[in-house]
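Q: Structure for this?
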Amino acid sequence: MADPKGFMTTPREEWPRRPAEERVRDWDEVYVPGALLPIVGAQADRCMDCGVPFCHEACPLGNLIPDWNDLVARSDWRAASERLHATNNFPEFTGRLCPAPCESGCVLAINQPAVTIKNVECAIADRAWAEGFTPPRPPDRLSGRTVAVIGSGPTGLAAAQQLTRAGHTVAVYERDDRIGGLLRYGIPEFKMEKRHLERRIDQMRTEGTRFRTSTTVGRDMAADELRARYDAVVIATGATAWRELSVPGRELAGIHQAMEYLPLANRVCEGDLERSPLSAAGRHVAIVGGGDTGADCLGTAVREGAASVTQLDIYTRPGAARDEEAEPWPTHPKLYRLSAAHEEARDLRSAPAADADARLFAASTLRFTGDAEGRVRSLHLVGVDAGRRPLPGTERSLPADLVLLALGFSGPGREDGLVDGLGLAVEPRGTITRNPDFATNVPGVFAAGDAARGQSLVVWAIAEGRAVAAAVDRHLSGGTTRLPSPVGPYDRPMTA
Ligand SMILES: Cc1cc2nc3c(=O)[nH]c(=O)nc-3n(C[C@H](O)[C@H](O)[C@H](O)COP(=O)(O)OP(=O)(O)OC[C@H]3O[C@@H](n4cnc5c(N)ncnc54)[C@H](O)[C@@H]3O)c2cc1C
Ligand code: SF4
């Protein structure tokens, strides 16, 4: 703490966002460029350097938050970068994308707004790249052991970087044409510009990680062949099996899964397409599902020029303040949060049929109806109580000629034959079974990230990637490893 009274004298101030009218006209990140650095030192100085830093406990990566808050407050950016990268391979991703359970667990948050930990993390990561504090770290010597990582999302990338740096020869297999998983073709550019991803991939290539794109393991290449060729295999294929909405009219044209819609918008940003074939331009859009994926659809539809956009959430509207009984500090509570996309929808009045921020809470979809050509035209819904029971007299309709389903994911897809080809045991909910060492029932095959944990967060994916790397290194090195293992396969976020 450069200033022990910082938390009493400095109010919380976040990285400001650009005006909604400006940012929806482009795909760039929503923040005002250059506006974080001038405020972040004083914000870091609000940290009380707690004896028991709950922020650290609340982060799956075990980020050394008070250490780097102090270093930023003292403008020692190089040391801050070293401390940050000691626990996180990709802080520029989490600094932009994480919902920040650390801030919910911050001791200051008991009676004041939390320290802006996520902003401090992002500032350190960006400064580290700008100043060259994070050069490639190729291994001093090679172990002669080989590892195949299947899937190039944050789990696969973190595992590959750790294992490459430990001296193993690592190849990452990815079925898409580009590396990155959901960071590439799920999360929109306005939440994280892909240049951050490219920079890390270049770093990893320089360190020696090999990448094989457009290769679906299980279909283009037999999983057994991969197993025979490598000393260990890490499955990091994500949870891509989306949930369906089985209501009358689901078969109408114009109803799509969020992950059919979002990747096309990402491809426009990549320059592959001039216009998305599913563009929302001029259409009335209804998004079914109140989570972050739905919010990403909302921000994308607004940028594409939708005539209106409404997001349906089956849950009742959460409160603005923590429920001290059900979700006491330091857990990460479900709160009414105004994401950048909701702020845009509110400011641009994008949803005349909904609440000001485009959301309709406690709303359940009954059916869709269409026109003579079989295209969806309306979504019919009913209000529900907290137990999801329909409330009589609350039926209503919304105009909808593009419907996006954002209802979550159950586990890895089975269509590529990878899970069945290898004979992997799976849990009843569809995720890959593994033991406390991240090992599956097939010798030499490990599983991590959303494929095994189920749909989660980038911060958990990176933590799982680091932990599975330690398990693989132990397996290859005869029982020892110097790699850190921040989480176990059965660890879960803090709850009351
Ligand atoms: C739209 C959307 C937005 C999100 N936004 C956020 C956010 O803002 N913040 C946050 O913390 N989390 C967010 N998440 C969740 C987060 O993206 C995931 O938890 C995380 O990406 C999981 O990482 P992963 O590496 O396990 O899987 P993924 O990122 O899904 O990567 C898996 C990769 O494996 C590849 N693959 C699958 N099968 C094969 C095969 N047989 N052969 C070769 N390759 C294969 C896939 O193509 C994919 O590239 C979001 C999720 C979605 C869907
Ligand atoms: S809990 Fe909050 S105030 Fe305490 S060390 Fe962590 S960031 Fe600083």
